[in-house]
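Continuing the series of single-chain predictions for the mutant panel. This is the parent chain; the variants come on the following pages.
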Amino acid sequence: MKIATVLYLLPLLSLSGCALSENFTPPPNGKTVKVAVVKPVDVDILPMDVIYRSEKCRDKIFTSTGAITSRAGYHLLTVPFKAEPGSDTVSNSVALDGGGQCEWKLSNIKFDFQYHNMKRFGAGVKRSIPSDIVFVFDRNAPPRGDGHFDDVYGAIEIKKITTL
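Parent structure:
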């Protein structure tokens, strides 16, 4: 009886070695993207959500009709900003190539910011809802948003001037 069980399980064990490892291993000297933010005194800059996509390691999903389809797999990293000494800037660099057997490629970077001192807006305001900015590096839609974005290249500076 034990021999029959082993013979039935042997084909299943040989198939389990076919899956690709989803490990994230950027090349040590690969290209990076630096995200730097000049941090206003009364604003908290929250860690970046960095998404990598892979055409090799695809995710299976169900459509609204119940059919099974696939989409590019994704790998999410949370990357904190680091204070730059002697300035009010926080920054960090992110690898363009995530490497590994899945050949992860940078898809998008999202970071949130929020006010930490709500008293400046009046006594009735108790909390700040974070706002975010998403940078897209490929043609995959980010996890949130309305699908509209501007194509820009090179160093990007985003400013909002408020008068309070």
